[in-house]
Specification:
Elements lengths: L1 E4 L18 E3 L2 E3 L3 E9 L8 E9 L2 E10 L6 H10 L9 E7 L4 H6 L24 H13 L5 E6 L5 E3 L2 E5 L4 H14 L3 E5 L12 H6 L5 E5 L8 H17 L14 E3 L1 E6 L4 E5 L6 E2 L4 E6 L5 E6 L4 E7 L3 E2 L4 E7 L4
Parallel strand pairs: 6-7, 6-8, 8-12, 10-11, 11-13
Antiparallel strand pairs: 1-4, 2-3, 4-5, 5-7, 9-19, 10-12, 14-21, 15-17, 15-20, 16-19, 17-18, 19-21
Helix pairs in contact: 1-6, 4-6
This protein binds zinc ion.
């Protein structure tokens, strides 16, 4: 663990009636109650790669409370959550915070600086498919291991903030994971409602083995910590509307978890998407979408088509049931097996 940048803001205690908390440390950086501290988690070089670094911020409230981890940049070309946390960092006042916020600013630095979608340029792996990671693995696996050990292990609640990747046009939604300990599942549901996105994908497909948790948020859940995955924004665009959804979501969570006295109320009319599917290409070539994000489709609506490199249509992808397009690929490159769109529906047909 290297580079300790203590951007300290020490706030004087003033008539606080609740129990003060102990200092909180990650990666050699300590934040005392009332302090904001920043630093970097080191992922050392190994096996010929250059290693990586993971910038983070600790906002340590004066009073005891939950430890809420907010992770951005698990996918490096998902910019809305990354920029949202850059802005949020200075707006959460530790003087009125109960508990602690841990922000991971860019989880996947190789992908962020390399401007890659889905896969790390270091090992061609998807960071959000290799959790809980391996200390002696490839770079993505070692990043996952550091995040599991240093961030998820220290948190009581975790939010993995995503958006459509650089090639995905996406309407906002969150995932509620329904596998695992029922108490954790119920707490995760409450987090989804508190975050405030109307559409909530009900996901019962995540593994329950903590040694094979695969996804970041599921790594928390399989360790008994409620967690949420959110999706706001996409196609490598940073827009204020998508950032505002994250601001609102974090404020709602802080209120829900008792970390702040005020904040927005939980979503009043959630739309539970009990069925969802990622539609995948069976051919490699150029993808042409025929629908837009958020579009309502019926069974057999053309989602898009794929051509070969001489402009001949080689595949048509159609909606397998009535539903809503949660995201659709918006750029031409497509490889066999990759997503072309995700469809959600309220009830299984
Ligand atoms: Zn993502």
């Amino acid at each position: 663990m290297r580079v300790v940048v203590a951007a300290g803001l020490l706030v004087a205690l003033a008539g606080c009636s609740t129990a003060a908390q102990a200092p909180f440390a990650i990666g050699g950086v300590t934040a005392v109650p009332g302090q904001v501290a920043g630093g970097t988690l080191d992922v050392p070089a190994r096996g010929g790669d250059a290693g990586s670094s993971i910038p983070f911020t600790i906002i340590r409230g004066r009073a005891d409370g939950p430890v809420l981890a907010l992770v951005a940049g698990t996918h490096g070309a998902e910019y809305v959550p990354i920029i949202a946390l850059q802005r949020l960092r200075s707006t959460i006042d530790p003087a009125t915070l109960r508990g602690t916020i841990v922000m991971v600013h860019v989880a996947n630095m190789p992908s962020f600086l390399g401007r890659t979608v889905y896969y790390s340029p270091a090992d061609n792996k998807n960071l959000n498919r290799v959790f809980p990671g391996k200390a002696d693995g490839t770079l993505s696996e070692r990043i996952a291991e550091v995040l599991t050990r240093e961030v998820i292990a220290r948190a009581t609640h975790v939010v993995d903030l995503h958006c459509g990747d650089g090639n995905e046009s996406l309407r906002p939604y969150s995932y509620w994971i329904t596998t695992g300990d029922p108490k954790v599942v119920e707490a995760g549901k409450a987090m989804a409602l508190a975050f405030g996105l109307e559409r909530i994908v009900v996901d019962g497909s995540r593994p329950t083995d903590p040694a094979a948790s695969v996804y970041l948020s599921n790594t928390a859940i399989t360790r008994g910590k409620p967690a949420l995955t959110t999706e706001t924004g996409g196609v490598a665009v940073v827009d204020d509307e998508s950032i505002a959804l994250i601001d609102r979501g974090v404020a709602g969570l802080m209120r829900h978890l008792g970390m702040k006295a005020d904040g927005p109320a939980p979503v009043a009319n959630p739309i539970w998407l009990d069925r969802s599917d990622v539609l995948r290409a069976t051919q490699t070539g150029l993808f042409y979408p025929a629908v837009k994000k958020g579009q309502t489709v019926t069974k057999d609506t053309l989602i898009g088509h794929i051509t070969d490199f001489h402009a001949k249509t080689i595949e048509q992808i159609k909606a397998p049931y009535d539903g809503e397009v949660l995201y659709v690929i918006a750029t031409p490159p497509i490889t066999k097996g990759e997503p072309v769109a995700m469809l959600g529906a309220k009830k299984a047909p």
